[in-house]
Amino acid sequence: MFLMEYKPLCLCFLAVALCSAKLPMFSWDTLPLFFHSSNASGPYSHESLKTIAKFQMVTVEKWQGYLVPGVDDDDEMINFMKMVKDVNPNAATYFYMASYADLPEMTKMKREFEQHPDWYLRDSNGTKVMKTGKTSFYVYDVSNPAVRQWWMDYCLAAVAATNGDGCFCDSSQHTNMTFVPPLSPEKEKAWGDGLLQLTKEVQDALGDDKLLIGKVANQSYVKAVQIEFFRPNNDSIVELMLGVEVDQVVQAHAPIFYDCHDDLTHHIAAFLTWSWRELLLWMWPLEHFK
Q1: Can you tell me the distance from the alpha carbon of 107 to that of 102, in angstroms, rounded to the nearest whole number?
Q2: Per-residue pLDDT tens for 70-89?
Q3: Staple 249 to which of 58, 155, 224, 253, CB 3.0 to 4.6 Å?
Q4: Is residue 267 a contact partner of residue 283, using CB atoms and an 8 Å limit?
Q5: Is the omega angle on the peptide bond into residue 181 within 30 degrees of 0, that is, cis?
Q6: In the chain, what are the domains?
Q7: What pTM value is reported for the model?
Q8: Partners of 120 in beta bridges
Q9: Are 224 and 212 in contact (CB under 8 A)?
């Protein structure tokens, strides 16, 4: 259990299958855990960094330094990864990126993208397309090879600058999309194929000893996945099984309440059902999803 300066997380589990990549530190001496968060108010304290650096996998989220005027979140994310490595060179660190979302939090990346109006996903009339739902945002046209190259270069640069271990590819799957205005069936298929191709190209470029973390167990090309809404039910256990069966690193991310007094017995039991190889768990406060 640990305290955070921005999001008071409690617990996280990690599941690591035997893929060909260099794996994060792992031991069954204790319940394997991973860290995935950020501090919107600024850098973490040294005491917090010493705690964070104990986790086997550390992903810095897109809100790092978001509330600090005059700084780019992307740069703050890189600084955070460097500080974790300074404390523990053996900690595996990962740079967060959205697979197709033009996010306001990624300030530097957003500025670069906006210099290329032709990189936005557009309908047949040339209108910029938004992905709608809980949040709405404009979309990268990942069917465009230039967009995929730019995305890959951004990931590789962050990994190189931090001596990191890979990138986290949020929403790496093409499922349950609602585009406004809608795309033609042909364009939507090309876009979905481009998203899959992006993961292949990036994982190939990262090489055998680094990970691209996707969001769907058994997803082609990615060597690691995060089950974001892991719960003690058959659906989550089946997804966990799928990842383990294809030798993916699997992160099980389960929501809990901010007071950290939840009974975790069922989540842990579900997680351990198929943890006969190597796995990681993470609990995130339920209020985050409201």
Answers
A1: 10
A2: 999 999 999 999 999 999 99
A3: 224
A4: yes
A5: yes
A6: 12-116+151-175+208-289 (3.20.20)
A7: 0.88
A8: 140
A9: yes
